[in-house]
Structure formats: C-alpha cells, structure tokens
Write the structure tokens for this entry.
Amino acid sequence: MNSVTKIIFVLLIPGMGLGERGFAVHMADALLSPTVGGAMWTVSAGAIAYCSAKVRSEPDERKVPLMGVLGAFLFAAQMINFTIPATGSSGHLGGGLLLAILLGPHAAFLTIASVLVVQALFFADGGLLALGCNIFNMGFVTAFIVYPFFYKRILGANPSQGRMSLAIMLSAVAGLQLGPFCVVLQTYLSGISELPFSTFLLLMQPIHLAIGIVEGFVTLAVVSFVHRARPEILEGAPRVRPIGNHPLRGVLISFLVAALLTGGILSRFASENPDGLEWAIAGVTGKEELSGPSRGIYGALAAFQEKTAFLPDYAFRKTPEAAVRSEGDAGTSDVRFGTSVAGVVGSLLTLGIACLVPFLLRKRHRET
Amino acid sequence: MATINGTSLDFRLLDRLSEGHSAVHRLDPRAKVLATLFFIVSVVSFGKYEVSALFPFFLYPAAMIAFADLPALFLARKTALVLPFAVVIGIFNPLLDSRILLHVGPLAISGGWISCASIIVRAALTVSAAFILVSVTGFPAICAALERLGMPRTFAVQLLFLYRYIFVLIEEGKRVSLARELRTFGGRGPGMKHFGSLVGHLLLRTWERAERIHRAMLARGFTGEFHPRRPCRFGVRETLFLLGWSALFLLFRLENIPRFLGTYVTGVLG
C-alpha cells in the first residue's frame, strides 16, 4: 500500500484543484451508485422542503430577494482570486459559512442548494444525480452541523472580536473536514472507485485542512469588514434566528432515519441482485426476467438474438475464477479471441451508430 | 482574466442555446427533465466493469444535439473540460485492481483499466446529459418543471432570483477583478490583505441591491410567482418523447446491444 499511496499522492495533489469550483470537491455522477445517489437525494429534498416551509413562515420577507442576490454574489465573489501566502497558488472564497452567518441556517441552506443547482446545470460540477450528495455535503453540513454545533457554540451569548475569529476559523475547518469526509464515504459506499476508504480519507482530509484554514481566513476578512462597515447586518442575523432550542436534534435524527431507510430499501435493489434495475423489474412484473416474444420489442429482439447468435457463450466480462480456469485450458483461447473481437467490433459499431445516425437523419430531414 | 471571461462567456452561451425553436425546445420541460433523470439513473446503475453496454446510451446526447440544432463541438469541449475530476479518481482503479478480466488477443486487460474506462464513459454521458438538458430547456423552464413535479415554491422562487442576478453580479465581479488587476500592474500583489475589503464592498453593494429589489417588488405587487415564457402542457408529443426514450433506455440497460451487434456481425463475416 505504501508505494500505491505515494503514487496516489503524486497524482492527486495537482489534480485536486480541477474538480473545485466553490466550496470543496464535488461528488460526481460517474463515481456514484444509484443507491447512494437516491438516498442522498431523499435527504436533500426533505431538507429543502423543511427549510422552504421555515423560510416561508418567517415574517421578514426581505429575505426572499436577499437570498437570491446573495447566491449570485457567491458567483461574483468566486471570480476574485487572491494569492495564498507562501504557496503561490491562488484561492477564492467558498462562501457557505459566510452565508450561514449572514442569513441563518434555513435561508443559507436554501441559498447554497440553489447555487449548487446552477453549478450542476451550467458547469456540470458533480452532476444531477450527485446533486443530492453535494447539497448534503456542502449545504446541510454547513447550515445544520457546522453552524449550530460549532459556530454558535463557540460564539456564545456575548461574542467578542476574538471569540468571533475563533468561531469562524474553527467552523470553516470543521466544515471542510466534514464535507470531504462525506464525499469519501459516499464514494466508498458506491463502490465504483477502487480507492480504499482509509487511503482516500488520508488524501482528502489533510488537503482540506489547508483549504479550510484558507477559507477561515477569507471568511474572517469579509465578516470583519462587514462588522466594521455595517454592524447591523451581522447583528440582525442571529436575531432572526429561527433555530429553536431543541427541534434541531429531532430534525437531524429524522433526516438520518430517512437516509438509512432509503439507503436500506434501495440497497435491496443493489445487493440481492447485481443488476438493481432487473430486480426492480422482477418485483414489478413478478417474474425473474422479462421473457417471451409477446413482450414487445425486447422479447422480439431477444428471440431474434437467440436465433442469430453465432457464439452464444460470448462473455465480455469474465469472473476472475472463470478467467483463471480458462487460462489453463489452451483449447478455449481461440473462442476467447473470437468473442473479444466480437466485443470490440460490436462496441465500436454501436458507438458509431449511436453518435452518427442522428446527424445523418437530421441532415436528410433538412434536405427534404 | 481570460478564465473569468471564458467562464462567464460559456455561461451566457449555454444560456442562449435555450432560446432555440426546434421541436425539442418546444416540448414541455417536465418531459425533458424526467427523460434526463431516467437517462442518468440508467447509466449509473450499471456494474463497475461495464463499458461496452454504455455505448448505446450515446444515442441520446447525439440525437438531442442533432435534432435541437445544438453546437456539438461547444458541448463536447465543455464536457471534456469537466471530465478531469472523474479521471483523477478513476485513474487509481488500474493501480489498485490488477486482476486480469479480459484478453484481447495477446493483450491482458486488468479490471482496473476496465472500471477506469467505465468511469470516464459514465462521466461523459452524465455531464453531457446535464448540459443538453439546460440548453434545450433553459433554467427558468427547468425550475417551472421541478415546481410542477413537487419542488417547494419558496425554493423555485429562490432559484429564479438567483438566476436573474447571476449575470448582473458576475459582471460586477469582473469589473472589480479587472480594476484591481489594472491597479496592481498585472497581478503583482493580489494578496489576501485587500481581499476582505474588496469582497466586503461587493457584499455590501449586493445587500443594498437586495433592499432596492425588495422595495421594487413591493411597489410592483410581486406575489411570489414568476411567469414562464412558454406555457406548459404535457400532451401527446411529451408522452411519446418520454415513453420512447424511457423504453429505449430500458432496452439498453437490460440488453447488451454491442454484444448483440458484435456477435451478429463477426458471425456473418466468419
């Protein structure tokens, strides 16, 4: 593992900046299983519904345009770079914590979530299925874990300048440790990437410790400027503090239960049968497999394939055991070669047809 | 500076694409949102060693680009720019998973390379699907669709407000950035020292803008609703679009088309 870890370090460190726009590394669709993606979508959708109801019930309707414009402000602020001392690389504001300080947890959560929706659609940061994960990792963690349990706790009832600085620094670091931790957990649970949990964790946490410290300094700089220029903005925020004394714990627990439930239900699809969708179809139709020519296009095609298949034992994907077994048996190597050629030819052909036929059809359509 | 201009320019270009008038653009946004979600779930539900079975799914982005008159190269470039993150994580698979799963002639291919290729293909498919959704539908219409599909009104209004002011504030961010760059003689000294007051000023201006917007809203009798440009109607075309693509994705998901084609073609030739 040592040499592998070293190689990973060498490869990952220059790559880290690439997936980043905004808060931290985004979870990506390509690394996500439908089970994890679906569970996180459920949690994030629930949190959005809950926060929407909370924000709507607030008497201060100035918040409606304020949330929208502050979300847009994050995009603008992220265009302003600064040089990180002693490293020469440049950074920018993430802004999740800043929003939580300015708006309070519910409005901040909705604003962060809306920024992530725009990023997912216009910059494809993460992706649409991973949106649930990203809203959780950056929005939920910042607004409902870091803000109440770190920022508010450390700030206390009578905040001094020093206490506020400490609260901001520690909250920024906590947010950028918890968020990436969730990314690692979600990647690991999805099982698409081969990175072992501990190795991935060892890579992500130290890098994000540095990012968190920078984020803390930057947030502190902006907050203390606002504190000097218009202190009433900061004083107003905690007063409209919609967080009750106890319900937050209930909210956290109910979200956890929802995540576990959906994860549990969805993982039945994934684990009992390697092909989740097929299991779902079997559940719906009551049959193990859709079969028989009466079942529309699929049945007809399957029957057609059975008739025309020249190498019925074709297997593109071999189990390791099968591969080892056939290794010893020289007689089967020709068949294997044949099937591989079939695999390659079929793949290239499909790719060609899928990409080109629509354009050809379109051209003909235009000419006529 | 080039990157800032590039980012906001790309953003605008992508946004403009939704003003097209093709048959795909005219469909009810709900059909397109649901088809995209079904597409992405079908793609990511494959096992991690699946590569060839993903290829038929390229039909969807290709068909949408062709029939909605989208600039294929622009979208391909944008997709390629986003791929590195998936590649950075995926490239570890060959290091960590060296079981031989496949032989192509004398070449032995390990499971790691297959799953790495799978990650890259997945990323290309899911990323292009997101870009295509926004370029054939447009952000406000996607919000309207999501709201009709059950998203809370407050969040829909938030998304629309954000969208309206992104362009305004990106311009402002660009002006601030340019002004500082000119005063620091090409970036000598964009340190953290002045960052706080720079972004702080931007924040205060934003705050004041929000207060003006709120007064303007009150003056115009804003009731918390935006009115979309195109009326929504889920008719026969939308049903056909959604059912057609869903059936196709289901077929691609359950049946390995390249395998079928490959055995058929090589069988005929042999």
